[in-house]
Amino acid sequence: MKLVRMMGLAVLTASALVFSMTAASAHDPETAEGQAAARTFLADHVPAERHAVTGTAAGVPCVNGMADKYPCKNVDLLSVLPLSGLGGGNGNDIWGWTDPSSGKEYAIVGRTNGTAFVDLSVPTSPKFLGNLPSNGGSSSWRDMKVYENHAFIVADFITGHGMQVFDLTRLRTVTTPQTFTADALYREFGPAHNIAINEETGFAYAIGSNTCSGGPHIVNIQNPKAPAKAGCVSQDGYTHDTQCVVYRGPDTAYSGREICFNANEDTLTIVDVTDKARPVQISRKGYSGAQYSHQGWLTGDQRYFLLDDELDESRGTDKRTKTYVWDLAKLSAPVHTGVYSSPATAIDHNQYIKGQYSYQANYQAGLRILDVSGVASAKLSEVGYFDIYPAGNAANFNGAWSNYPYFSSGVVIVNGIEQGLVVVKPNLGGK
After folding, report:
1. What percent of the chain has pLDDT above 90?
2. Residue of higher predicted confidence among 8 and 421
3. How many CB atoms within 10 Å of residue 1?
4. What is the pLDDT of residues 107-136, one digit of tens each?
5. In this predicted model, what pLDDT tens digit does every residue of 50-107 receive, in sequence order?
6. Signal peptide location in the record (predicted)?
């Protein structure tokens, strides 16, 4: 039986906690080793300085477990741009864009009242370029992805929001913050909880909308400014998140097919969406300990899937943050092979895998980085973290909502519900 849908499961705090204007000064290591680490870090970045907007130190290495006021391990602080410098509201999802003509990196920062665009050319001093207001109201749940230099943005619980399309190349000429308008608006659904895009095929998957029984609403975005409905996946009802790929994994029966891996509240549901008008459900599998299967990501070889469950920490007896490992040797029979339990006790939310690492945004525990090279035996290990919410580590909905780890520079951006944009640089020893 389906679980009752939880709207992101949090009743977010009524007012954002404003980022401190009197944060402690940059961490001053006392050891020779710490001083050497600081000199090396600062030689590779601009010298540590007070961020003009936040009062928080920028360009601070993680030394002796701290970077400025933030607990950390192998992750250095570059900067923080608070919500007050991004157009207000509370933070939610985040994505990134790299301009193919210049190599410039940009953050696309979701907020309850709109979407902010930030130039990360100097990551220790991010530059707010402007805001695309929400279409028709405020929502705690806004999500965005990128295809062909365009951002595609949805929001939940706004009846007429639809999917905003924004041409990111417009940012190239911005010199002062702007209030933007969308280049196109797709109206075949109103609210949607989330959106995924298969950049290889040019199809978007709006999920948790008021169509398709809440399952993936498929949109052809190959012409970004003229999106067109392509199909529905409604067999298993509401989908909370998905990853859709051209399949190159070990199950040769599906080689070259477009496959979606859906977190469907109480199951992992795998669907062949190659024929957008006639999607085929391949499998639907529950797992021990399921409370709310929220989101997950494939390993690079597409053999394994890491799934996070948003309610198992608060409802279960084991309060540690858990990651569920799936073996997908046969897509028709996925096998739950084990669970990684973090030292932290926060709720997990969104994770993305790059190379051998999973970058997890786990609310009060902040950004957590897991080495997944032992995934075949369900052995994951934490190799780094950056805690953007030092005040606690409980199963509550504060802190890190999501992250984006795919910039070629190695910079990782995190969006905090109360904190805004946090820019960091993992230092994982060249692994």
Report:
1. 83
2. 421
3. 4
4. 999 999 999 999 999 999 999 999 999 999
5. 444 455 678 999 999 999 999 999 999 999 999 999 999 999 999 999 999 999 999 9
6. 1-26
Query: H-helix or E-strand containing 40?
Result: helix 32-44
With CA atoms as reference, report the closest residue to 245 among 264, 229, 261: 261
> Which is nearest to 388 in space by CA: 358, 420, 427, 411?
420
Q: How far apart are CA 407 and CA 409, in angstroms?
A: 5
Structure tokens at 306: 């890491």
Which of the residue ranges 37-46, 221-230, 354-363 would you say has the lowest mean pLDDT? 37-46
Contact 215, 234 (CB under 8 A): yes
CB 361 within 8 A of CB 347: no
CA dihedral 124, 125, 129, 131 (to 10 degrees): 70
At a CB cut-off of 8 Å and minimum separation 6, what does 158 contact? Answer: 134, 135, 136, 137, 138, 139, 190, 191
305 Cβ contact partners less than 8 Å away, ≥ 6 residues apart: 261, 268, 296, 297, 298, 299, 325, 326, 328, 334
Query: In what helix (H) or strand (E) does residue 179 lie, and over which residues does it extend?
Result: strand 178-179
* Strand partners for 67: 70
To which H or E segment does residue 261 belong?
A: strand 258-263
Structure tokens at 79: 């900067």
Q: String of b and e for 224-260 (b: at least 16 CB within 10 Å)?
A: beebeebbbbbebebbbbbbbbebebebeebeebbbb
Q: CB 342: neighbour CB atoms within 10 A?
A: 20
